[in-house]
Write a structure and sequence with these properties.
Blueprint (H helix, E strand, L loop, with lengths): L1 H18 L10 E5 L1 H5 L2 H4 L3 H13 L5 E5 L3 E6 L2 E12 L5 E9 L2 E11 L5 E5 L2 E7 L1
Antiparallel strand pairs: 1-2, 1-8, 2-3, 3-4, 4-5, 5-6, 6-7, 7-8
Length: 142
């Protein structure tokens, strides 16, 4: 009887572990920076007039290129921008067959709570494409 109970316990344990899904955010865990080169090679940047490109390049280098995004377990995140760290949370809303993850992020700012919908796509070369509406940033591991 003990052997039967032991076998049933093992079957239940392995059955439950086989049913658990991997965390869709595991590839994103850690600290990421913006791939400045991808910003400067984007169609949005290239379509600007030369004088606007020069200004946009300066802004990208001084601000966007220094941004960081850190994803941590338990739905926590930190965005580094403008010399400040903004703590927030994320919730995975959905994951499609291609592995694209849709998130809702929440951060407390000086102006109150801010929620945003973000999509993450993990690329074969180890980068993360982060999209918010029509805007896209490519992130590289720090």
């Amino acid at each position: 009887m003990r052997t039967l109970a032991f076998c049933l316990s093992l079957a239940l344990l392995f059955g439950l572990s086989a049913c658990s899904k991997p965390d869709p955010m595991s590839p994103a865990m850690g600290k990421w920076g913006v791939d400045l080169e991808s910003v400067l090679q984007s169609e949005k940047f290239k379509s600007m007039p030369p004088d606007q490109q020069e200004f946009a390049k300066k802004m990208a280098t001084e601000f966007v290129g220094k941004m960081t995004f850190e994803f941590m377990p338990a739905g926590k995140m930190v965005v580094g921008a403008g010399g400040k760290d903004i703590e927030g949370t994320y919730v995975v809303d959905s994951v499609n067959e291609a592995g694209q993850v849709k998130l809702t992020t929440t951060a407390k700012t000086e102006k109150g709570e801010r929620k945003e919908n973000v999509e993450l796509t993990f690329t074969p070369d180890g980068k993360v494409k982060m999209m918010k509406g029509a805007d896209e940033l490519t992130l590289i591991k720090k």
